[in-house]
Each structure stands twice: as structure tokens, then as C-alpha cells.
Amino acid sequence: MLRGGRALRSLRGPGAGVGPRGRGGAAPGRPLRVAAPRSSDVFRELGPALSRLGQTLREQLPGPGGWDPQWSPQSCPPPEQADVVVVGGGVVGWAVAYWLKALENQQHGMRVLVVERDPTYSRASTVLSVGGIRQQFSLPENIRLSLFSAAFLRNINDYLWVPNEPPVDLQFQPSGYLFLASQRGAATLEAGVKLQRQEGAKVALLSPSQLKAKFPWINTEDVAVASYGLENEGWFDPWSLLNAFRRKAMSLGVLSCVGEAKSFITPTEDEMQLMARDRVKYVNVRLPDSPEQQPVACAIVVVAAGAWSGELLATATASLPGGSLAPLPIQPRKRYVYMWHCPDGPGLECPFLIDTSGAYFRREGIAGNFLGGMSPPEGNEPDTGDLEVDHDFFQEQVWPRLAHRVPPFQTLKVRSSWAGYYDYNTFDQNGVLGRHPQLQNVFVVGGFSGHGLQQAPAAGRAAAELLLHGRCSTMDVGRLAPGRLLHGEPLREAAIV
């Protein structure tokens, strides 16, 4: 279960009418099933036969007419028409696609296409993340999104298990986030905990003496107060979640292709009599290793391109009549992750620790390895043109802070490192979720500034409800709508790691 040291209390799950296969029935609130799919002896006996039948059909049916669980999008060019085009095949894009099919009223009624330009995910924020989930935020919208996602992950096989396939195993490690605050930040942290509890999160406040008693290896000399998540926090494997969403969505009929959305096309002057001008009629998809572009007619476009959402929207709408649109302030921000070995460091009780300085770390496995890093100082952002790692940044900025907080880290040895991207909302560091204020059939889901992975299940559900019903009924996240960008009304999130 998703918990941090105490028994997980039953929560009202995110299912709200969506059951094991995305339609009907079971709500979460039961333990995470990772050992075996829900099956009886009958299904186990049918399994090999169904597998052989599926292989026979794939061999005999012409074209890409079935679901290929290995996902070979290179052999599937974009179709000429789709009801919904999701631009971006990261975890957020696939979550949107999954929920659209899971919530639609008519089975096989909606044609959803996911367009991803990099099937290797070599630069994707999803797979380069450290995989944390928490509810310790300063805004109710972020707390709600992460609580929903925690309940979803706890019962993931009720949603994303594909019949006749192995169960989903996220390799979840339950452990609370531990935020440390100095005297200067104590009031902000305490106010955040009060709000988190009001929203249903289980978070404890610890005095320096309580902190030292629970984690004796922490240097508490400059810590005024700490907050510790008791349930629904920890970390998991990002790739497993992405792949689970993708496999389930494709099993429900979602289409996918490799390509890059290059431009949006609005109606012509003659067509304006039948449809509004401020709508996208086609998405031009450039095929890989080719100058050719395939126009895909669509009713709705979902921009879920992660760190490149702002650039995508600017490029895709540059040729639209009527002047340029207000910019979407989502940009890539490069962040370094370092892995080090310290056999004398914290043991299995190690939380996901966020220091007063902004440095963070968590345990990786059980052999004395740790992952961590820190955001760079304001105004000193690294170049995003590559994924090269700055090792001096660790030596000069990160290590001294870690060694101060955890004295055994004075002897740590760095073993590896990598860099990844935040889809950073420069306006207020919060997610953007809703209809574009100037293009009535374009929806934006992005800008989560480092917590998109953990909030993807909830953000996907919210976006799907907005598309299908015009409102989000599962949780109140209306303030995240893109209109606040146009009106200059920021929502500040204080707990950005």
C-alpha cells in the first residue's frame, strides 16, 4: 500500500464508476495488487489458448489492425482523422488518452490518437524522474491531485491491468516525505500542514527533538520544525507507470504514431460559415526522418508535450490568422540527479528528505545507494540544449549541504548521474489544465514543474472529464485553467523541489 510507516486508512477512491477494465464498478481502497492478476482457474486455463489465438490473428489479419502489446508505432502512420489528437506520449498524454476511453459512454465510440516524436523517450521528463509522490503542497489543487493519484496507484491493477497480461508492478517503496524548515520557513511549513490535513492528507509535525528521536542520523541544529508524510507517499518506477498507461490505453483502442506535430490549421474563409474560426481543424504531423507531413482532421487537440508544450504551441500556431496567441509559459528546465554510495548512511527507514537548503535525497534499493540533487539558484539555470551533467554542481553545491545534514554523507562516493527536464511553468510553477483561452477546441495539460509524474493519473482524469462533460466532477481543480495566465492571476506553489 502507499503509506509511510502506518496503516493506510481507507480512502474514497478515484474510480467513481470506473472499474477493473475502465468501465463500471470497483472503487479503490484496497491493497495494491502486485503479485497476481485477478483471475480464476478458468482464466488461467484459457490464458494459453487466448495467447495462441491472438498470435494467429496478428499473423493472418492484414495491416496494423489489432493491439500490439509491444507497441510498434513506426509501422503505423497517423490516420487521416481522429476525434481527439493528444500531442505528447509521456505519462500525462497517455493518462489523458486512457481516461478518455475509460470514461466514454459508447465502447469504441471515440477515436483517440497519441502522437509522440521520440519513441525511445531519451529526453522525456517521465522516465528521467526520481519517481516520488507526496501530498505536501501549499495549494489545495496539488494536494487533491496527488491524493487522487495515490489512491489510483494503490489499486492500479483495478484500472490498468490488461487481461491475459502480467499484473502491473510499480515497484512502489512506501516512505514519507520529510520536509525540514528553518526558523525562517517554519510558519510556511506549518500553514501547509494545516491545509494538507484539511484536504485529507496524513502529515505529522515534528519538533527538533522528535525529529532526532525518529531519525538519529539527522543533524537538527538549524531545524526549527519538520513535516513528515504518514500515508500515500514514497517513490515508484516511472517507466512502469508510463508503460502501464500506454498498454491499457492501446488495449482500449487508442491509436498511436511516431511523429511531430508541426502546425495547427484552422478553418478556411468558406468553412467559417460552418465552424468557428478559433478552432483547430487539422494537426499537421511530420513523419520521422521525412519532410512529409500528414494532416490529421480532428475535433479536439490536447497539448501534453511536457517541457516542450510552450514551444509546440508557439510553433504550431505561428501561421494562424489574426496574429499570435498569448504565449504558454511552459519551458524545459534542466535538473541533475546524482546517485551515490554510502554504506554508513541511513537505512531502510530513510524518508524522501527535503533539506532547508533545497537539497534532497532518497534511498535507492537496500545496498547503501541514494539518489538526490538540488535545483540551481534563481537566475543560474543550466543550458537546456543537452543533457550533460555538471559534476562540479554536486561537488560545490549539493554535497556540502548533504554532508551538513547527514554527517555520514561526508564519505559518500558518486557512482552515476543523469539529467532530465522539468516542464516548468515560469508563471507560477503550477500545472495548467483546461481549455486554451483563445482556441476553443485545444486543451492544455502540462507545466507541473516537477510533479507531473505523480499527478498524471489525476490530471488525465480531470482533463478527460473536461473534454467529455465540460466540467471536472471528481475534484475541484478549476483554478488551474489556462485563463489565469491570460489574466495575470498566478497561483503560487511554495513546495517546489
From TrEMBL:
Q: Give all residue intervals belonging to the FAD dependent oxidoreductase domain.
A: 83-466
Region labeled Disordered — which residues? 1-33, 58-79
Classification via SUPFAM superfamilies: FAD/NAD(P)-binding domain
Output a single Gene Ontology CC term carried by this record: mitochondrion
One family from Pfam that matches here is DAO
Output the InterPro entries linked to this UniProt entry: FAD-dep_OxRdtase, FAD/NAD-bd_sf
Molecular function as annotated in GO: oxidoreductase activity
The highest taxon in the source lineage is: Eukaryota
Residue ranges annotated as compositionally biased, kind Low complexity, are 1-13
Keyword Glycoprotein attributed = no
An example Gene Ontology biological process: mitochondrial respiratory chain complex I assembly
Listed A to Z, the keywords are: Oxidoreductase
Q: Where is the composition biased (Gly residues)?
A: 14-27
Q: What does this protein do?
A: Required for the assembly of the mitochondrial membrane respiratory chain NADH dehydrogenase (Complex I). Involved in mid-late stages of complex I assembly.
Q: What is this protein called?
A: FAD-dependent oxidoreductase domain-containing protein 1
Q: Which organism is it from?
A: Asarcornis scutulata
